[in-house]
Amino acid sequence: MKSIFTVLLSLVTLSTCHYTFPALVVNGVSTGDWVSVRRTNNFQTNAPVTNVNSPDFRCYTSSTTAQTATVTAGSQLGFRLSQAIYHAGVANVYMAKAPGSVNGWDGSGQVWFKVAQVSAVTNGGSSISFPTDNQSQINFTVPRNLPDGEYLVRVEHIALHSASNVGGAQFYISCAQVKVTNGGNGTPGPLVSIPGVYNGNEPGIRINIYYPIPATYSQPGPAVWTG
Ligand SMILES: *[C@@H]1O[C@H](CO)[C@@H](O)[C@H](O)[C@H]1NC(C)=O
Ligand SMILES: *[C@@H]1O[C@H](CO)[C@@H](O)[C@H](O)[C@H]1NC(C)=O
Ligand SMILES: [Cu+2]
């Protein structure tokens, strides 16, 4: 009895430090948990992905369905968290255009481009800080010149508190489904595959953030396409 209690307690302790991104926020309003966001495999454990080559690294789910939310190019969206971000780290938001309907599309191929990032703040080695600390929502703008169509939107928070070795960084991931209207005729890029975008050895992924204090920080992934 006591040992079961101890195990349960440790599971609870474990999961309270982790987090998920269950809700898309459109025009300041949440679409609800796991409604426009494909329900991730960790929806109960909140556990991260640590293998950047795993199929889970794309959307952390084998589901390819959700309710597609209609959004306007140029508007601000957000991914709301299950709890405030607990770990020091950085964020990226990627999008990928579905060939047709995004519902049922798996996001495979060299189709992803970055639309936003929240990096670390350094000042030459005397301190490093992480603006995502304690945030309960990651906001980003749908690029104004993004062509109309249906897209996957993938958020990742890369927790760096134990990232000194390959496989130590913890990735918290969700994918939402959106239909973009009022868009333009931009050409998003550079395009990358996910998984494939990282190898785990990047200076912004395999990093000791404590000692020596990094003088600079290199955000993982391609440049942001702003349209
Ligand atoms: C994100 O947008 C919401 C409105 O949806 C706003 O209340 C919040 O302050 C924003 N958060 C950040 C970190 O900018
Ligand atoms: C985040 O919250 C913790 C606990 O309340 C606090 O100790 C810490 O200073 C906060 N960090 C930031 C950057 O606000
Ligand atoms: Cu955690």
From TrEMBL:
Its EC number is 1.14.99.56. Its cofactor is Cu(2+). It holds the Pfam family AA9. It catalyses: [(1->4)-beta-D-glucosyl]n+m + reduced acceptor + O2 = 4-dehydro-beta-D-glucosyl-[(1->4)-beta-D-glucosyl]n-1 + [(1->4)-beta-D-glucosyl]m + acceptor + H2O. InterPro entries: AA9 (IPR049892), AA9_LPMO (IPR005103). It is an enzyme of class 1 (oxidoreductase). Keywords: Carbohydrate metabolism, Cellulose degradation, Copper, Disulfide bond, Metal-binding, Monooxygenase, Oxidoreductase, Polysaccharide degradation, Secreted, Signal. Gene3D superfamilies: 2.70.50.70. One of its GO terms (cellular component) is extracellular region. Its main location: secreted. One of its GO terms (biological process) is cellulose catabolic process. It is found in: Secreted. Residues 18-213 form the Auxiliary Activity family 9 catalytic domain. Residues 1-17 form the signal peptide. GO terms for molecular function: metal ion binding; monooxygenase activity. Belongs to the polysaccharide monooxygenase AA9 family. This is lytic cellulose monooxygenase (C4-dehydrogenating). It comes from Cyclocybe aegerita (Black poplar mushroom).
